[in-house]
């Protein structure tokens, strides 16, 4: 096994406003004879039909998957209104992908067939490896407003077995109107893309956050589980109860407040953030993830995002060596918090340093869990003992 | 109007009514919370079909995976620790082995020291017996013979122990040289012919004129062991010592018509302290080291040793030695030394040995051979008797180990010869079989004899010195 050449993973971005230009710029950077698969994230600002056409034209028959975002992470760090893409060299990666068109009908049998199909694709395309559960991971891109992420992800995870998986929910720059995933020439909503990637390189799927529990707790006393809406907390209008808890007038509740004062459920010894999407006029709160009557929400405190990210990635890199790329699914509220604290430049520097490329999500997926307030992704490192020195 | 009425209603409410109303509201709120929690608790056992339940289910699964991974990692860590521990144990075992080897070495040194100290009085005793035998009356003779035999057995036991411990310690190395095999075997044949005769056995010797490359000392020990075994374990018939050329090698045989060795024991006879069942019956005092020594020495000499035997019919040991040739000069030297030994009468011999008994024994023996003896326990004592620088003498018999904290025999001999215009030939006596001493003697041109000195050997040595 020789050292991976620089193009084992290529990344590119374009801030061109015109879809054709953006697609062409990406293609010019990524296309080489061994390019096997392309993953991209794009701003909702683009005309998606035009963008789909342009990408189709540039990449022809190459497998291409992606989704819309609530902001991108490019080689510049946190970015907006861009198209960012990752190209995988077929000599080092074998990828298969599948579109789930109707998320609400997705059952275990579908998940099993899908997993088998993806493994078959990976095996057929593999050049230098035999895909198995040790050299394979799965990336999920889901419609972020579908409210079906939990069921789809949990079902998929049951079929994936010990294959690690991660992913993100597509965003739409906080419009909260419609999010899209892209597959084979067009964008879809209420859909999910599952990408399976086998590689000869070392990798590690991770999820990290910087939240710690504090004392106050709120009980959900009225909720619409189907729509992820909490009407009441502690038998009071949810927005009022929350606003009082965080000490902010109810009319001032916004993304920054939600980012700074997250709520989380405790399951056994661990806390899982339940990110608030918006405060509604009827004093209810909409969430980015599943909620239910009777769950107990714990107020969380934010530690240093910067320190947490540094230690997490340093730790992984101590095992894998310097990464080729880190594909990151970063909760949109993390970005909101950084923006409010004026810490975007430092965070961007950190992301650049660790070669993170990805997008801001409406929710992250990690080994079957749909979670919030995290950075979740995969570090693709150099094969140990090959490239060092 | 209506507002005014309400106001007046409120105004009519007492603080107690307000307080009660607040408590009622709070109570209702808490009941709502309770209901929600109850609903949640009661629903928690259901299958995860709802989104939150699916999420919770996934979390629990993931946590289990994490815990199991953690457990595996812990197991792995423990295994690594165990491997490390095992490595440490191995290290300690190695250290223990080293210590045991050290202990073995010091045991060897101890045995060597004890053997040396035992040899001194034994040596003296044998010299006395030998002297007595020379002129004993018929009545005393058999007893003297018994004493001599007993002493010889004792000597052989001590030598065996000492040899075995040295061989174990690996301090014995071969010093090979080319020499006519007959030079060694003739002497042995003569010696053992007499022993065989004592038991009424026929002793056949087939000599050879071949020259071999071997260490005469070590080879002699092998042959002695084999021959004495052959005689010891044979009651009637013949003991054969024979040679036969086989290409570039010569086979030396020691065959007997003795008790033989059972087939089931033939593999173990070369092991230490292993003696054939019948061998034990025959010879109670043996240590069972003889053949193991033979085998070890044959390995050091690289002389292949083999044995064939049939119970009650006899054994045949066969040693293979490489054949070589002597240089012309060497042959001449051998020819000279093999001339008829001149009489020792009138030979002036100086003996220096710190053991008074040995001094006395030497004097008795040498005087019987007609020598004129000056015996001293140290150099100063010798100087009291003769002027070492000028007094006439033919040979100096020097003990190597003199009193502690004084010079050793080599140094004393050097002193004496330094004072003389013509150096004296020196016969160095020692029980110390160290290679180093052997070499130092060779450098000085001294002849080396090992204690206990047998009279015959001493006689030959004296003759050799005179011829040289």
UniProtKB/TrEMBL annotation, chain A:
Protein name: GfdT protein
Annotated FIST domain residues: 34-237
InterPro entries: FIST_C, FIST_domain_N
PANTHER family noted in UniProt: BLR0328 PROTEIN
Domain FIST C-domain residues, every copy: 238-368
Upper lineage: Bacteria, Pseudomonadati, Pseudomonadota, Gammaproteobacteria, Oceanospirillales
The organism of origin for this protein: Alcanivorax dieselolei (strain DSM 16502 / CGMCC 1.3690 / MCCC 1A00001 / B-5) (Alloalcanivorax dieselolei)
TrEMBL record, chain B:
Pfam families linked to this entry: HATPase_c (PF02518), HisKA (PF00512), Response_reg (PF00072)
Domain Response regulatory: 348-466
Residue span, Histidine kinase domain: 113-325
Cellular compartments per GO CC: plasma membrane
Molecular function as annotated in GO: histidine phosphotransfer kinase activity; phosphorelay sensor kinase activity
Highest taxon, organism lineage: Bacteria
Presence of keyword Coiled coil: yes
Coiled-coil stretches noted in the UniProt entry, renumbered to this chain: 62-106
Modification 4-aspartylphosphate occurs at: 399
Transmembrane segments: none
Entry keywords, A to Z: Coiled coil, Kinase, Phosphoprotein, Transferase
InterPro entries: CheY-like_superfamily (IPR011006), HATPase_C_sf (IPR036890), HATPase_dom (IPR003594), His_kinase_dom (IPR005467), HisK_dim/P_dom (IPR003661), HisK_dim/P_sf (IPR036097), Sig_transdc_His_kin-like_C (IPR004358), Sig_transdc_resp-reg_receiver (IPR001789)
Reaction catalyzed: ATP + protein L-histidine = ADP + protein N-phospho-L-histidine
EC number: 2.7.13.3
PROSITE patterns listed in its UniProt record: HIS_KIN, RESPONSE_REGULATORY
UniProt-recorded name of the protein: histidine kinase
Protein species of origin: Alcanivorax dieselolei (strain DSM 16502 / CGMCC 1.3690 / MCCC 1A00001 / B-5) (Alloalcanivorax dieselolei)
């Amino acid at each position: 096994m020789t050292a991976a050449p620089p193009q084992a993973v290529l990344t590119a971005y374009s801030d061109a406003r015109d879809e054709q230009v953006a697609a062409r710029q990406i293609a010019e950077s990524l296309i080489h004879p061994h390019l096997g698969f392309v993953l991209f994230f794009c701003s909702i600002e683009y005309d998606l039909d035009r963008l789909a056409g342009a990408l189709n034209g540039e990449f022809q028959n190459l497998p291409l998957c992606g989704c819309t975002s609530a902001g991108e992470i490019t080689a510049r760090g946190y970015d907006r209104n861009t198209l960012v893409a990752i190209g995988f060299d077929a000599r080092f990666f074998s990828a298969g992908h599948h579109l789930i068109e109707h998320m609400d009908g997705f059952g275990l049998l579908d998940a099993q067939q899908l997993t088998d199909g993806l493994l078959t694709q990976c095996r057929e395309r593999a050049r230098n490896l035999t895909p198995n559960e040790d050299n394979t991971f799965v990336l999920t891109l889901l419609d972020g407003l579908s409210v079906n992420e939990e069921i789809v992800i949990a079902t998929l995870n049951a079929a994936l077995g010990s294959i690690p998986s991660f992913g993100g929910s597509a965003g739409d720059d906080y419009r909260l109107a419609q999010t899209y995933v892209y597959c084979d020439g067009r964008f879809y909503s209420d859909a999910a893309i599952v990408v399976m990637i086998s590689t000869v390189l070392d990798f590690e799927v991770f999820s990290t956050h910087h939240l710690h529990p504090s004392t106050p707790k709120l009980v959900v006393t009225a909720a619409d589980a189907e729509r992820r809406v909490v009407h009441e907390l502690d038998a009071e209008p949810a927005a009022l109860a929350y606003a009082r808890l965080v000490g902010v007038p109810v009319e001032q509740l916004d993304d920054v407040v939600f980012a700074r004062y997250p709520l989380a459920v405790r399951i056994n010894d661990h806390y899982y953030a339940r990110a608030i999407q918006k405060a509604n006029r009827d004093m209810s709160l909409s969430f980015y993830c599943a909620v239910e009557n009777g769950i107990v929400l714990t107020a969380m405190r934010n530690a240093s995002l910067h320190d947490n990210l540094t230690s997490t990635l340093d730790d992984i890199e101590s095992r894998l060596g310097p990464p080729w790329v880190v594909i990151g699914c970063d909760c949109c509220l993390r970005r909101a918090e950084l923006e409010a604290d004026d810490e975007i430049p430092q965070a961007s520097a950190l992301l650049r340093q660790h070669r993170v490329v990805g997008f801001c999500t409406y929710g992250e997926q990690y080994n079957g869990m749909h979670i919030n307030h995290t950075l979740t992704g995969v570090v693709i490192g150099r094969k140990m003992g090959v490239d060092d020195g | 109007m209506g507002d005014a009425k309400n106001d007046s209603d409120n105004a009519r409410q007492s603080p107690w009514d307000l307080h009660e109303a607040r408590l009622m509201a709070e109570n209702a709120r808490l009941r709502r919370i309770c209901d929600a929690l109850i609903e949640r608790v009661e629903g928690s056992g259901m299958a995860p079909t709802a989104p939150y339940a699916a999420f919770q289910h996934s979390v629990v699964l993931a946590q289990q995976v994490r815990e199991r991974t953690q457990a595996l990692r812990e197991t792995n860590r423990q295994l690594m620790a165990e491997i490390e521990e095992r490595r440490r144990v191995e290290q300690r075992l190695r250290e223990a082995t080293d210590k045991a080897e050290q202990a073995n070495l010091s045991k060897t040194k101890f045995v060597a020291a004890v053997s040396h100290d035992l040899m001194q009085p034994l040596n003296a005793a044998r010299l006395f017996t030998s002297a007595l035998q020379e002129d004993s009356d018929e009545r005393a003779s058999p007893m003297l013979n018994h004493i001599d035999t007993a002493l010889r057995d004792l000597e052989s036991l001590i030598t065996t122990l000492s040899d075995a411990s040295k061989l174990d310690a690996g301090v014995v190395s071969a010093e090979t040289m080319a020499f006519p095999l007959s030079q060694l075997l003739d002497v042995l044949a003569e010696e053992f012919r007499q022993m065989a005769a004592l038991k009424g056995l026929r002793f056949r010797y087939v000599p050879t004129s071949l020259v071999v490359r071997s260490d005469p000392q070590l080879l002699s020990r092998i042959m002695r062991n084999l021959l004495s075994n052959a005689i010891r374990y044979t009651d009637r018939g013949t003991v054969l010592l024979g040679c036969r050329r086989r290409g570039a090698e010569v086979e030396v045989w020691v065959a007997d018509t003795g008790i033989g060795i059972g087939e089931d024991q033939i593999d173990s006879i070369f092991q230490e302290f292993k003696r054939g069942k019948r061998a034990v019956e025959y010879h109670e005092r043996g240590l069972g080291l003889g053949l193991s020594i033979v085998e070890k020495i044959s390995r050091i000499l690289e002389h292949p040793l083999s044995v064939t035997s049939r119970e009650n019919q006899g054994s045949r040991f066969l040693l293979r030695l490489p054949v070589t040739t002597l240089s012309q000069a060497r042959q001449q030297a051998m020819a000279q030394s093999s001339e008829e030994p001149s009489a020792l009468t009138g030979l002036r011999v100086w003996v220096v040995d710190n053991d008074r008994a040995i001094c006395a024994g030497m004097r008795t023996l040498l005087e019987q051979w007609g020598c004129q003896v000056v015996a001293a326990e140290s150099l100063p004592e010798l100087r009291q008797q003769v002027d070492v620088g000028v007094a006439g003498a033919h040979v100096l018999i020097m003990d190597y180990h003199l009193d502690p904290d004084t010079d050793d025999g080599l140094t004393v001999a050097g002193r004496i010869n330094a004072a003389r215009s013509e150096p004296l030939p020196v016969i160095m006596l020692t029980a110390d079989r160290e290679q180093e001493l052997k070499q130092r003697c060779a450098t000085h041109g001294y002849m080396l004899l090992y204690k206990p000195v047998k009279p015959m050997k001493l006689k030959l040595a004296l003759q050799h010195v005179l011829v040289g």
